[in-house]
Amino acid sequence: MTENLPRTARPLRVLAAMSGGVDSAVAAARAVEAGHDVTGVHLALSANPQSFRTGARGCCTIEDSRDARRAADVIGIPFYCWDLAERFREDVVEDFVAEYEAGRTPNPCLRCNEKIKFAALLDKALALGFDAVCTGHYATIVEKEDGTREMHRASDMAKDQSYVLGVLDEKQLAHALFPLGDTVTTKDEIRAEAERRGLAVAKKPDSHDICFIADGDTQGFLAKRLGKAEGDIVDGATGEKVGTHDGAYGFTIGQRKGLRIGHPAPDGKPRYVLDISPVNNTVTVGPVEALDVTALTAIRPRWCGSTPAPAGTYTYTAQLRAHGGETEVFAEVVDGELHVRFTEPVRGVAPGQAIVLYDGTRVVGSATIATTTRATAAV
Ligand SMILES: Nc1ncnc2c1ncn2[C@@H]1O[C@H](COP(=O)(O)OP(=O)(O)OP(=O)(O)O)[C@@H](O)[C@H]1O
């Protein structure tokens, strides 16, 4: 159950990040069971937790912090609540809005792992004398003979979260514990384990995808932040105006639903978002084949764990969005950027998303998709 924790003779001082959900409660309990000296912490990440009183789970409602505290009491560990709302707003929420405004599609969970849980929280934990931060993420840490660490996909692929952790560098991974990651347990089994341990969160519903948009309405959230900005939807092949929109920022490459297109395309086939131009406030649409991408460049590469930046061209598999499949790629670092060619064209690659490279199950690294090369010149 606890092979994922470091093979160290001495118990570690562990800070368990407790969201108030079932996964992190079980993770904290497992860390205690492994013999570590565990303290729980809930992060208040919203400046306005009352706004989530709708029944939908947000990242840090009052109920979440109470649930985390109760779980800590049952496990028998000290518990604190830390206010990181300002850091979260600056590093995650404002970045999210700015990225959409620039026509890109960000991944806030990945950003939160990089900037909040394994930066702001980890730094504070280390400064206070803790050895590690423990979370309920599903990913496996493998400690090698030489003491270096690798991150691998979780044993249960259905729950694997290595994609949103692919940004962790050597230091961050050296101080991370994921007690759930290498056990092949279904969510039902985790809930049953929570029940056995007397944790009241055993039946609590799973958290929402984007924790700071409690109702799940990303477009509504962006519209409130960025205002209405009516613009044109144009056909990529003809350049003809085919509809209007209320703000180019509300779209994602590959999107089909929610397009207000006045008349059907001449071939009668559905139209997809091919390009978003914030400068002209224009959304370009076209047939699904025009989404095929043969190559991309990605910026700010980060090499996971102690993996050195690859020199030369390597064959890896890549994941291009949070719940996406894997695809084979040739990857190379050129002038600090990641250049990737796909062995087969892939569809709907959105700038702003992360590309995470894998060597088998091992996470090699990640980078932010900046530009793509289309198979056809429809845009
Ligand atoms: N507000 C928070 N305070 C402390 N830790 C948090 C908070 N939000 C998330 N975490 C940590 O990050 C991990 C992954 O977050 P995610 O939002 O993916 O939760 P999850 O998979 O639904 O897990 P859980 O069931 O614990 O909520 C959690 O398991 C927890 O350790």
Description:
- By secondary structure, the protein is an alpha/beta fold.
- The chain has three domains: 13-203, Rossmann fold (3-Layer(aba) Sandwich); 228-286, SH3 type barrels (Roll); 290-374, Elongation Factor Tu (Ef-tu), domain 3, CATH 2.40.30.
- It is 24% helix and 29% strand.
- The protein is built from eight helices and 17 strands.
- The chain has helices at 22-33, 62-75, 85-101, 108-127, 162-165, 170-174, 187-196, 218-226, and strands at residues 13-17, 37-44, 79-83, 132-134, 140-143, 149-152, 176-177, 231-235, 241-245, 272-277, 282-286, 292-303, 314-319, 326-334, 337-347, 354-359, 362-374.
- The strands form four sheets. The protein has a six-stranded antiparallel β-barrel with strand order 12-15-14-13-16-17. Strands 3-2-1-4-7 form a five-stranded parallel sheet, with helices on both faces. A four-stranded mixed sheet has the order 9-8-11-10, with no helix packed on it.
- Helix 1 (22-33) links the parallel strand 1 and strand 2 (37-44).
- Helix 1 (22-33) crosses helix 7 and helix 3 (85-101) packs antiparallel against helix 4 (108-127).
- The longest helix has 20 residues, at 108-127.
- It is globular.
- It starts with 12 loop residues before the first strand and ends in a 5-residue tail after the last strand.
- Bound molecules: adenosine-5'-triphosphate.
- The site of adenosine-5'-triphosphate (ATP) has 19 residues, from helix 1 and strand 2.
- Residues 220-286 form the tRNA-specific 2-thiouridylase MnmA-like central domain.
- ATP binds at residues 17-24, 43, 136.
- Residues 294-369 form the tRNA-specific 2-thiouridylase MnmA-like C-terminal domain.
- The active site is at residues 112, 211.
- Catalyzes the 2-thiolation of uridine at the wobble position (U34) of tRNA, leading to the formation of s(2)U34.
